[in-house]
Amino acid sequence: MSNPALSWIAVDWGTTHLRLWMMDGNDKVIARRESDRGMGSLTSDGYEPVLLDLVGDQLPETQTPVIICGMAGARQGWAEAPYASVPCAPPSLAQATRVATQDPRLSVHILPGLSQMSPPDVMRGEETQIAGFLASEPNFDGILCLPGTHSKWAHISAQEVVSFRTYMTGELFALLSGQSVLRHSIGQGWDDEAFLGAVSEMLSRPAGVAAELFGLRAAQLLQAQSPDVARARLSGLLIGMELAAARPYWLGQEVVILGAAGLAKAYETALNGQSAWCRMVDIEGITLQGLTAAHGQLTQTR
Amino acid sequence: MSNPALSWIAVDWGTTHLRLWMMDGNDKVIARRESDRGMGSLTSDGYEPVLLDLVGDQLPETQTPVIICGMAGARQGWAEAPYASVPCAPPSLAQATRVATQDPRLSVHILPGLSQMSPPDVMRGEETQIAGFLASEPNFDGILCLPGTHSKWAHISAQEVVSFRTYMTGELFALLSGQSVLRHSIGQGWDDEAFLGAVSEMLSRPAGVAAELFGLRAAQLLQAQSPDVARARLSGLLIGMELAAARPYWLGQEVVILGAAGLAKAYETALNGQSAWCRMVDIEGITLQGLTAAHGQLTQTR
C-alpha cells in the first residue's frame, strides 16, 4: 500500500544509529523512525534491506529520493562519498554519491563529508548540520561549536567552512568514566563549581590533565570526594583542555553552539566562565534542515 | 611434604596479577610463581586460599612470614594497610598490617602504600620498588620515574619520598589504542622519528592533545599514515604530555627510570630528546629487592 503524500526521505546514518524522516513536499514531516542498524553493524549490501524494513510499506510506485548524510558515506559504509575539501561550502546535492539499488522505487543520494589537509581532519554528518544552520542564518560569520563524541569547531565565513578542528573530548569522557580506574569514582550527578574550577585549571595548565585525572581517584580515596563532583570535574578537565586548544577559535569571536541540550549547556557555562560570548541553537531539527536544504537543490535541478 | 629451605615468601599482589617468590634465607630465590588471581577478582576471604594453592605444598610446619606489597592492601583488598603520608621513607615492616589466617603456618604482613594530600595522590606497590632501589643506592638524591599504567614521578631525598605525582598515561594509551575510534588506525610497530616529533609537539602545545589524537584517524584516512607511525605518535603524544606536566621534576635533575625494558626505553628516548640526563635501572628484581629489605627488618626486630 503506497502513501501518496510521501515525497522524499531524509536519513542521518551514523556509526551506531540512524534517524530517518518521511517527508511530504519539501519540509513537512510525516513520520520519524529510528534504528540501531548503524554503519558499524552493516556491510555495504545491508543498507538497502534496513531502509526497506523501515519505509518499504510506505513507498509509492514512483521513485522516491532518499537523501543521506553521515557515516553511510564512509569507505566502509554503503558507498563512499568522497570528502569535499575545505575551504568550501557544505557539500550540495550535486556532489552527492548516487547509489544503485535493487528496489527501483528508491533513488539514493549520499552527501559527502568535509576534509582538511593541514592539519589533517575530517567530518561526516556535521557538514549537514552546518548546512542546516546556514539555511536559517545565511549571513553568519563566526564560529560554530558542535560538541559531541568528536567535538568540532568550525570557522564559517561567506557561507563557507574556512577551517575546522576535531577534539576527541566526548569519547575520552566515555572511556574514562566507563572503562578506566576512574569508573569507581564517577557518579551520575553534577556540580557547577567543580566543573568551572576544572575548566579554569585546564585553561591555565593544560599539560596537567593526566595527573588531574588520576587525582580524581586519589581525591575519592583520601578526601571522600563525591562522585557527582568527580563527574563534573572530569567533564571540566576535558572540556577545559578542548577550550585551551580551541582558544584561537573562540577568543573575541561570536560562537554559536550547536548541540544537544545538556552538553551544549556545559560548553556555554564553560565559555561564559571565560567571558566569551556565545549562544546556543538547538540541534534537534538542524540535521533535518540540512537534508531539506539538499532536497531543495534536487527540486531546483529537476 | 615440607621444604626445609623455605624461610619466607615475597608477594607482589596487584589488581590483575600476583607474582610470588619462595625464599631461602634472606635473599635466595627458590621458586617464582605467577597467578591471574589479582585483587580485582577476589573478595577478602579469597586471598588465603589463593596463597595456599600456590605454596601450600611447600610450607614447613613452623610459621612462615609472607610479605606482601600492592593492591592486596587496598580497602577492597585482603586487609587495608593504611597509606603512609609523604614526606616519609618507603614504609617499613613495622608499619605493615598483620592479617590473621585460618592456616597457622602463615604469618602475613601487608606493606602500606604512600599517600599525598596536596595535590591528592596515592601509590600501592611502587613504594616497595622505591625501597628496592634505595636498598642498592641509599644515597640517591634525585628523581625516580616509574612508567606504567599509572606512571609515577617521585622526588627522593635523604632516603625519603618527598613528593610524587601520578599520570594516567599508560591507561590512556591502552584505552585509546584498544577501544576508541583510533583502534582502526593503530598498529603494532614503531617509528622513532614520529615518536620524538609527537613528544616535542606536546612539550610545546600540550593543550592540543585531543585534536592531535583525532588527527591520527584523519591522517590515516587522508594521507594513508602507517599504523606503526600512528602507534608511535600516540605514544609520543601521551608521553610528551606527561613530560610537559612533569617538567619541574626532570628539568635539571638526575632522573632514574625504573621500568620494563620497552616502555622505559621510550621514556629515555623522549627525555634524551629534551637534553635531560637520565639512566635506566631494570625493574625486574627491584620489587623483590624492596620486599627483601622489608624481610630484613623482620629479622632485625625478632
Automatic annotation (TrEMBL), chains A, B:
Xref: InterPro entries: DGOK (IPR007729), DGOK_C (IPR042257), DGOK_N (IPR042258)
Write out the transmembrane intervals: none
Q: Which Pfam families match?
A: DGOK
Source organism: Tropicibacter oceani
Give the protein's recorded name.
2-dehydro-3-deoxygalactonokinase
